[in-house]
Amino acid sequence: QTRLDGLGIAPDPLYGPFQGGWAGFLSYELGRTFEDVPWPGSELHPKIGLWPDLWLGLYDTVAVFDALMKQAFIVSWGISDRASLSEALGQVKAAALAQRLESKPLPSGIMAGLGLKPTRDRANAEQAIAQTVRYIHDGDIFQANISIGFSGTLAEHDTPLDLFVRLIARHPSPFATFLSLGDLAIVSHSPERFLSRTTSGQ
């Protein structure tokens, strides 16, 4: 990262807030690295260990879609394996991404169902919310995230990307994300930003 900081990359405001850089995810289980607190065993949470605690990729070529202006751009910094900028490499990468987008359009997401069901019913969720409010009133906690898991099996020939497209078509989200990790995929439909970092590093 120190070598990348020295490249002098200056994003152009015309092309949106993300024009390349590190992208990935930090799992909740990553907290075990920093906090000495008890964690639930795998018998209670069978998905622990299925995902890596941390996954990041460095992306120097991105497609930017401006829904408001109805324009699209491809931005490439041409970062070489030696962490240096190459205009020629950037042009090659941009052309390759353009060709890939033209040959593989996004799925239409026309399948009707989402294929997911909640893991708790409404009454159970309302009970958990009421209990949390009591905890806050009693001073035991000051905030909590009450969530509901969804579980299901995608239909034959359906893919996680199809699911993502359907979610966005139904409810556009400002912080939605699709991340493909080979055999695993993250389909995020978040309405809020969890962390942010300014150009000054704050």
Structural features:
202 residues; alpha+beta; 24% helix; two-stranded antiparallel ribbon; two-stranded antiparallel sheet
Structural overview:
The protein is 24% helix and 20% strand. It is built from four helices and eight strands, in the order αββββαβαβαββ. The strands form four sheets. The protein has a two-stranded antiparallel ribbon. The two termini are 16 Å apart.
Concise synopsis of the structure shown:
The chain has helices at residues 2-5, 87-103, 122-137, 160-170, and strands at 21-26, 54-59, 61-66, 71-76, 117-118, 150-151, 175-180, 185-190. The protein is α+β, with helices and mostly antiparallel strands and 202 residues long.
How many distinct helices? Answer: 4
| Low-pLDDT sequence parts | none
| Global Rg | 21 Å
Percent in strands: 15-25%
Roughly what percent helix?
A: 10-25%
**What's the overall average pLDDT, rounded?**
81
Total beta-strand segments: 8
Which strands sit side by side, in order, in the main sheet? 1-2
The end-to-end span amounts to 16 Å
Largest sheet: 2 strands, antiparallel
User: What structural class should be given to the helix and strand makeup?
Assistant: alpha+beta
Globally, the shape reads globular
Q: Note the run of SSEs as H and E.
A: HEEEEHEHEHEE
What's the SSE blueprint?
Layout: H1 2-5, E1 21-26, E2 54-59, E3 61-66, E4 71-76, H2 87-103, E5 117-118, H3 122-137, E6 150-151, H4 160-170, E7 175-180, E8 185-190
Antiparallel strand pairs: 1-2, 3-4, 5-6, 7-8
